[in-house]
Structures are given as C-alpha cells and as structure tokens.
C-alpha cells in the first residue's frame, strides 16, 4: 500500500525573526469595573506602535474605585536593540491611547 500524502495546505506567512533582544515593560491601569479588559488591550495595542510584539494581561485586582489590569508589553525591533527612551515612549503612547479610549489611569500615579 502506497503512503498517502496530506493535501497541500494554505501557506501562512511567518514574521521574520529578530536577533535583537525583546524589551519587556509592565503597566498597571485602573479602569471602571464595567470596562472590558479586551477594550483596554485593544487601546494599548493601537497606541503602542509597530514594534509591539506581544501584549499579555497577567493580573486583575479589584479596587474600591474599579479594577486594576496589569499588562506586560513586549517590544522588539528587527534592526536594533531598543533604548530605554524608545521603550518608554512606546509605553507612554500605549497608555495615552488606553486613557483616551477607556478612561484608564496608571495605578499609583
């Protein structure tokens, strides 16, 4: 009996791998209890820029004034190691986007 080859599958492009290190930064945002974490994540993503590689919610904490959502943002450049200034600017843009879209504020600010 001849082995049967699987049908050809659609090609899914994979982004190029960078040899430069990722930069991780955590942000904790306070939002109202009714605000969906997905809405905050989408706003962070839209403001973070093209070098955002990953965003992950890692903590939800109830507060008297709402809830705190903590996210880890991972940035990586395909062409260089990122500086602290670059990463801070991207983080600040992401937080500003979340503030404008959802009313989020930095926890402890």
Note down, in words, how this protein is organized:
The chain is of the alpha+beta class and 109 residues long. The chain has a single domain (23-106), classed as 2-Layer Sandwich (Alpha-Beta Plaits). The chain has helices at 37-48, 84-102, and strands at residues 23-31, 52-63, 66-75, 105-106. Strands 2-3-1-4 form a four-stranded antiparallel beta sheet, with helices on one face. A hairpin with a 2-residue loop joins strand 2 and strand 3 (66-75). The radius of gyration is 19 Å and the shape is extended. The mean pLDDT is 91.
CATH topology: Alpha-Beta Plaits
Distance between the termini: 70 Å
What would you call the quaternary organization? single chain
Strand order in the largest sheet: 2-3-1-4
Order of helices and strands: EHEEHE
Overall form: extended
Q: Please give the share of residues in helix.
A: 25-40%
Number of strands: 4
Structure classification:
alpha+beta
CATH homologous superfamily designation: Ferrodoxin-fold anticodon-binding domain
Tag the structure with descriptive keywords.
109 residues; alpha+beta; Alpha-Beta Plaits; 4-stranded antiparallel beta sheet; extended
């Amino acid at each position: 009996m001849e082995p049967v080859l699987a049908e050809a599958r659609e090609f899914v492009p994979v982004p190029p791998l960078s040899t430069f290190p990722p930069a991780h930064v955590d942000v904790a945002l306070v939002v109202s209890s009714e605000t969906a974490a997905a809405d905050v994540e989408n706003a962070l993503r839209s403001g973070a820029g093209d070098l955002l590689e990953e965003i992950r919610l890692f903590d939800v904490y109830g507060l008297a004034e709402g809830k705190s959502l903590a996210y880890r943002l991972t940035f990586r450049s395909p062409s260089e190691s990122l500086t602290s200034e670059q990463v801070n600017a991207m983080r600040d843009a992401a937080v500003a986007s979340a503030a404008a879209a959802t009313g989020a504020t930095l926890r402890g600010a």
